[in-house]
Amino acid sequence: MASSVQGQDRPSKEKKKNKRDTHFVCLPLVTPESVPQLAESLTYFRNVTTAPAPVSAREMLARRQGPEQPAEGDNDGHGGAGGKDSLDHLRIIPAQAHRPPGTFHLTLGTMDLSEQESMDEALKLLQSIDYAELLRLSVEERRVANPPHGESNAETAKAVVGMPLESSQRSITLPAKSSSSSPSAANSATQGQEDKPIEPIRVSLRALGAFSSPKNARVFYARPYDETGRLYNFGLAVREKFREAGFITETRPLVLHATVANMSYASRNGGRGQVRRGGGSGWGKRRGPDTVDASELVKVFDGMIDECTNGEAEGGDHGKVREGYLWAKNVLIDRVRICKMGAEKAEDEVLGLEYRPVGEKMIFENM
């Protein structure tokens, strides 16, 4: 009986694979605290990286026939067709590619919920998951990676360092060895941690990465950093719940990221084929469809030096640490949400655009 049911389900799932995904599961990053920070940091990023619009043939002819005037962007620090400044080599992103604060989130997976039955089942699953328990388990997994009393495991350490979006430049301080390394002492410490209430996750968005690579950049993103080390395991656990139920079919490793610019939006808005070459007019070295060579741009924003909060920095440089450009800090992760693909205009002008939620559940019921 069970085998016949599985056989009946298989054709529908194969047919579903041919459809485009319509929704996604995510951890929203739009909060009252994050929006002002994102609005400021994104404005700076936009001012520094936006390429001047390519000059049309008609505009070029009009300029030649009429009195000589400054090219667009010459007086606003954007370089323009005839001007140039010290940041001109960074101006490679079309204006339409930049994403506004209202679109910020961490995607856990995409789904096809075009049929009402699938939508109803996904929303039911969303509400049935105990997210606080998943977060507690993520603490347990992190504790294994960082055993108490200085006990270490080389293979575990390599796995932790190699986890996606963990900063390779972040200083790591090992816990001091205790005079007592008995199992009972370790168990006592572990029990004490279990008794502590589970705190919400708060992240900082830092630095700049690019898909598929800096030399072949299509998507620019900020990296989320969680000082408690729980974010990735928690996101992975939530995604696994939706994968087990058959909603998420993605097989690639989870890479948590917050998109700050996407070249495909420039193409959709009439920017296809327009590229910036070098440091003048145009749009960047073309590396492929909707991509640019952003090696220098990523290097600048990925390696900015900020004041270190704990007074220590890698290499003994006290007071400062190389952590990359800060987009926002202390961003609360308090819910899991299913959103419809395709950002829509937000009522709040500061948000700009937003993804319409179709359902959400708070991680902690009492928040």
Word description of this protein:
This protein is α+β, with helices and mostly antiparallel strands and 367 residues long. The chain has one domain: Cyclic phosphodiesterase (Cyclic Phosphodiesterase, Chain: A). 33% of the residues lie in helices and 19% in strands. The strands form 4 sheets. Strands 2-1-9-12 form a 4-stranded antiparallel sheet, covered by helices on one side. Strands 5-4-3-8 form a 4-stranded antiparallel sheet. The radius of gyration is 24 Å and the shape is globular.
Features:
single chain, 367 residues, alpha+beta, Cyclic Phosphodiesterase, Chain: A, 4-stranded antiparallel beta sheet, 12 strands, 33% helix, 19% strand, globular, disordered N terminus
- One letter per element, helices H and strands E, the order comes to HEHHEHHHHEEHEHHEEEEEEE
Oligomer: single chain
The radius of gyration computed from the alpha-carbon positions, rounded to a whole number of angstroms, is 24 Å
* Total DSSP helices: 10
Low-confidence stretches: 1-15, 68-84, 144-186, 271-288, 305-321
CATH architecture descriptor text: Alpha-Beta Complex
Fold blueprint:
Elements: H1 2-17, E1 23-28, H2 34-49, H3 57-65, E2 105-111, H4 116-128, H5 131-145, H6 154-161, H7 183-195, E3 201-213, E4 216-225, H8 231-244, E5 258-262, H9 263-271, H10 295-302, E6 305-307, E7 320-322, E8 326-333, E9 335-340, E10 344-345, E11 353-354, E12 357-362
Antiparallel strand pairs: 1-2, 1-9, 3-4, 3-8, 4-5, 6-7, 9-12, 10-11
In short:
By secondary structure, the chain is an alpha+beta fold.
